[in-house]
């Protein structure tokens, strides 16, 4: 009998992806069931590694379960249940369902792989499936999807190159196992660059708001859960002992993402920039490297999947009801949509870390880890990012309820409500009954925290006061901002002009080389066919003429070479000898 512990939950999700092609209803039922089975597997499978596959000289481990993979895999599988339901409830066709399930299955495969090669396979399959998920919407999403595909192809290539250098540096058949992380130096830098692209580090992040604001609203919900979260999971595997540079990169991301979110008036672009900000918190915890920091990072990863997914669900229904993602152009949330208002309030409270929500628990853990480690500048960066988050969701709520067209938006349907309410309940349940959640986190016995300490509550009160004040005072400025100027406004023209200059330069070099080659071949041909003339032209006039006259007295019509009859005779003799040898061999 096959032991279920040796089979990755990705396979059951991929089976559902194949069944989804039979029809939308079949796909929804199969997908919800498969993700539910995967969630049960994640919760019940024992810790450790299972199975071993041979690949060249390497031993590949298809299933490895530890607290980090368990909590990440549970977030992926459990959210897959509601994400598939939301896709179906918002009218996505069977192709969207199949691509989404392939994408989710690839994420589960990567998380539970016990080595870098398995993670890389899942990484690349995720890139393919998510690109298809974007393209399926058509229109502007196709153009955006090409940039998305190019960026993730570069990220995957960098990750693969870094892993190859790591194998060379480490040597041995176990080099691809996670172990103590990636070898230092160039392998670590290359892997960090590949992971950083998927994690939307500053400078390589523009694909995130462009892509997540473009496809089907259900696809945006699915995309919000997996790519960036797998990237931070890979960052933990690469740097399991932490890395302060990574932590400070995360701190700057928290400020940068929240700041650019304040400049947005498109609901999904605002939320996409907040993915970058929340990923910054997660990277900060991983980079700190303490038991509390890593536990806080994975707690926030789990919680971010929930509240960010719920926010994208709300934003998606606003897009459907209003016909636009522009918060000031569509209708308003209000008395006609109490469920949507309630879901937004729970999700916004969670991402801004209101006491009683899951975000309050996990953000407090990361901030405590920075405090315990003495990383005061990092802690201030995270606090500034928190203020920006509070201000931007004050803006979201204000625009969605007060600044839209003078018509109220319809509420969620029953099917849509069924997919949203469990996520909201989970956000509140983790915030109020956090002890069982703590047991799932890495090194649960090596750290402790008191989420509702007086310091935490007073600090949060102060942050909300500053954030709300910042929104009120800055509202005239926010009114004038239309997305802001991101790094792509400078980076893309530089890349284009640089690539064009490089192309022209390469063409000129190849042209010069080709001309030199043509001249060399012409001179060589002349020397081979008429060596007397070539030599004579290089001698003084009188010496050249004497050389030509002397050459005419030598046998052969082309100077020193044999004449035509002699060449034919030699060829006939060679053919005759070859024929005799062939007959004799028989």
TrEMBL record:
UniProt keyword annotations, A-Z: Cell membrane, Membrane, Oxidoreductase, Transmembrane, Transmembrane helix
Segments crossing the lipid bilayer: 6-22, 29-48, 68-87, 94-112, 118-136, 148-168, 188-208, 220-239, 245-263, 275-299, 305-324, 336-360, 380-400, 412-437, 568-585
Top-level lineage group: Archaea
Leader sequence residues: none
InterPro entries: ComplexI-like_HydComp, ND/Mrp_TM
Membrane topology of the entry: Multi-pass membrane protein
Residue intervals of the NADH:quinone oxidoreductase/Mrp antiporter transmembrane domain: 113-378
Subcellular location: Cell membrane
Gene Ontology CC: one annotated term: plasma membrane
Molecular function GO terms recorded: oxidoreductase activity
Protein name: Proton-conducting transporter membrane subunit
Annotated organism of origin: Natronosalvus hydrolyticus
């Amino acid at each position: 009998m096959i032991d279920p512990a040796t089979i990755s939950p990705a396979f059951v999700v991929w089976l559902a992806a194949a069944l989804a092609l039979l029809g939308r209803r079949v796909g929804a039922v199969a997908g919800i069931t498969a993700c539910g089975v995967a969630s049960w597997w994640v919760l019940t499978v024992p810790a450790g590694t299972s199975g071993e596959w041979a690949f060249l000289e390497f031993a590949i481990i298809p299933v490895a379960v530890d607290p980090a993979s368990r909590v990440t895999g549970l977030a992926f599988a459990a959210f897959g249940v509601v994400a598939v339901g939301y896709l179906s409830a918002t009218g996505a066709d069977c192709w969207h369902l199949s691509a989404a399930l392939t994408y989710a299955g690839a994420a589960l495969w990567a998380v539970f792989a016990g080595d870098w090669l398995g993670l890389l396979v899942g990484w690349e399959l995720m890139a393919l499936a998510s690109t298809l998920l974007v393209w399926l919407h058509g229109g502007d999403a196709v153009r955006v999807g090409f940039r998305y595909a190019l960026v993730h192809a570069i990220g995957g290539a960098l990750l693969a190159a870094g892993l190859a250098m790591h194998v060379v540096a480490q040597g041995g058949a176990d080099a691809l196992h996670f172990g103590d992380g990636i070898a230092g130096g160039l392998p670590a830098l290359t892997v960090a660059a590949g992971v950083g692209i998927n994690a939307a580090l500053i400078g390589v992040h523009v694909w995130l708001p462009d892509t997540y604001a473009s496809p089907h609203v259900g696809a945006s919900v699915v995309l919000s859960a997996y790519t960036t979260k797998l990237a931070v999971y890979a960052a933990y595997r690469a740097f399991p002992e932490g890395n302060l540079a990574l932590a400070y990169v995360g701190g700057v991301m928290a400020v940068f993402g929240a700041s650019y979110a304040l400049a947005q008036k498109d609901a999904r672009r605002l939320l996409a920039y907040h993915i970058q900000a929340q990923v910054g918190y997660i990277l900060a915890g991983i980079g700190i490297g303490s038991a509390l920091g890593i536990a806080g990072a994975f707690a926030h990863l789990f919680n971010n999947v929930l509240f960010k997914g719920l926010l994208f669900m709300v934003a998606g229904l606003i897009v459907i009801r209003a016909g636009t993602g522009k918060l000031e152009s569509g209708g308003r949330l209000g008395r006609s949509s109490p469920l949507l208002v309630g879901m937004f309030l729970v999700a916004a409270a969670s991402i801004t870390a209101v006491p009683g929500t899951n975000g309050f628990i996990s953000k407090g853990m990361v901030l405590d880890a920075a405090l315990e480690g003495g990383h005061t500048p990092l802690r201030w960066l995270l606090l500034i990012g928190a203020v920006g988050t509070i201000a931007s969701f004050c803006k979201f709520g204000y625009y969605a309820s007060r600044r839209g067209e003078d018509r109220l938006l319809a509420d969620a349907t029953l099917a849509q409500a069924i997919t949203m309410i469990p996520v909201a309940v989970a956000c509140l349940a983790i915030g109020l009954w956090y002890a069982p959640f703590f047991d799932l986190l890495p090194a649960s016995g090596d750290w402790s925290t008191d989420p509702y300490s007086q310091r935490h509550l007073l600090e949060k009160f102060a942050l909300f006061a500053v954030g709300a004040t910042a929104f009120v005072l800055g509202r005239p400025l926010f009114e004038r901002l239309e997305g802001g100027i991101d790094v792509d406004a400078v980076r893309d023209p530089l890349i284009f002009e640089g690539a064009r200059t490089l192309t022209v330069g390469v063409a000129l070099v190849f042209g010069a080389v080709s001309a030199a080659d043509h001249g060399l071949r012409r001179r060589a041909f002349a020397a081979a066919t008429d060596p007397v003339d070539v030599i004579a032209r290089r001698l003084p006039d009188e010496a050249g003429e004497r050389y030509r006259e002397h050459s005419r007295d030598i046998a052969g019509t082309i100077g020193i070479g044999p004449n035509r009859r002699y060449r034919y005779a030699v060829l006939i003799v060679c053919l005759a000898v070859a024929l005799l040898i062939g007959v004799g061999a028989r």
